[in-house]
Sequence to fold (542 residues):
Amino acid sequence: MLGLMQDRPLLISSLIEFAALYHGDVEVVSRTVEGPIHRYTYADAHQRSKQLAQVLISMGIESGDRVATLAWNGYRHLECYYGVSGMGAVLHTINPRLFPEQIAYIANHADDRIILTDLTFVPLLEAIADQLTNIEAIIILTDQAHMPETSLPNVHCYETLLDGQNGDFEWPSFDEKTASSLCYTSGTTGNPKGVLYSHRSTLLHSFSSTSQDVIGLCSRDTILPVVPMFHVNSWGIAYTAAMCGAKLVLPGMGMDGASLYELLDGEKVTVSAGVPTIWLMLLQYLSENDKKLPHMDRTVIGGSAAPVSMIETFENDYDVTVVHAWGMTEMSPLGTTGNMKPKMDNWSYEDRLAMKCKQGRAVYGVDMKITDDDGNELPRDGKAFGHLMVRGPWITTGYFKGEGGAMLDDGDWFDTGDVATLDPEGFMQITDRSKDVIKSGGEWISSIDLENIAVGHPGVAEAAVIGIAHPKWDERPLLIIVRGEDSTVEGAEILDFMKGKIASWWMPDDVTFVDEIPHTATGKIQKLRLREQFKDYTLPTA
Ligand code: AMP
Fold:
């Protein structure tokens, strides 16, 4: 027997519609790329999102078409979130930190028809314009006064297009399983792969985030997502904030300590979210300038492990609770959050801190287990470590266009690629990655890509790349080289050779030479042994 409840679809448009109706006077504050701080309300954001939907329809965009953005966290990007997905098209948020050729690849792979870009990325688009096969129009997210001189074809001014529409628009209703947005993730090998979210998965993820045991976002909060809107939908915050009517503060390009502090303090931000690198810069600014964070209640730290010193500094020196979180692009992204359980209030400081350093416990909706290489479940004893497997309604079933093949096992479990422990309290701790990607400032650097390029140098016999801990970027690549016979090649020559073949921030921070690189029985480089060998290595940039 089926229940007798309404089957109303969960649609992204309903979020901004709700925010406009019930929190219409709540502010959205943005640091613009043009310079000034911009402020308006959820009611304004709703009206302009509808105008954007009208613009897209007038340009021939239909349900399911991909519309891309290359943009920082700002109000116009927010309008793209609602305008594009709301009308039934798919918002493809491109990560501008990818290597230009990868950007061209993913824009073509996604069949993007339109790109909406911040002024910042116009030169980037100019450089790859002739490689973009499907783009019919480029809309620059600015007003007429700031329109640049550009060689780009079919360019439009965002504000001029919006001015041509009246916003008298009803959001369409459709199946909640319809694709809403697309985000590419770069793994260790090959091209980036697309994760395709749905309206349903996005709304369920947002409901979860408002829960007290997750981020606990509510209308009393002011949230500043430092995590970019081009990386997993800013951890869903652009949606969750509208769902609960929280004031939203969007930092634009201003990720440095001084710029962040100005907004955190001036806008009385109560909760924020970002990767450890960002918080290191902020903490340094606060200590050098003797500043405090009186309004801030909590901060969500994820993307890579939050260092213990960072947790202690936030909590002890600034009275800001750290919510350590773990997730991934394939999971929308939230999987775990490290909110303490009541019984832990009575634990010793050291025991509580040890729990805070773990990545947290599963949020409702995410099933989680660890397995050995044969798929057998391992005990939740905090000691055994294995492949971290997840499943749930906001976790991917497979990559866009079937890249990478079938992703799930019989029970729908998705292998995260992380290796972890689970303890009796349900807290998960990442112990290793089954892949050896290097995490630099919250972004991935593929060690294998770097190795492949380095071995292209005639003086190099073999190359291995491992991540070395770095005080600012978490990890930076160290290139380990075995010279070819009779070769006298030096590190600078190899780095010179690699320049232009990879994004500049992928360049290894140092090169070191060894006689031999350790191998497994099947001839694979033993990264674990290398990491052990270089565990005390200090990079010159550290
Ligand atoms: P991405 O899809 O780029 O967000 O990266 C997801 C990966 O980042 C995960 O599979 C983990 O390897 C890593 N990660 C995310 N959050 C954390 C965390 N709190 N601690 C350690 N690693 C993390």
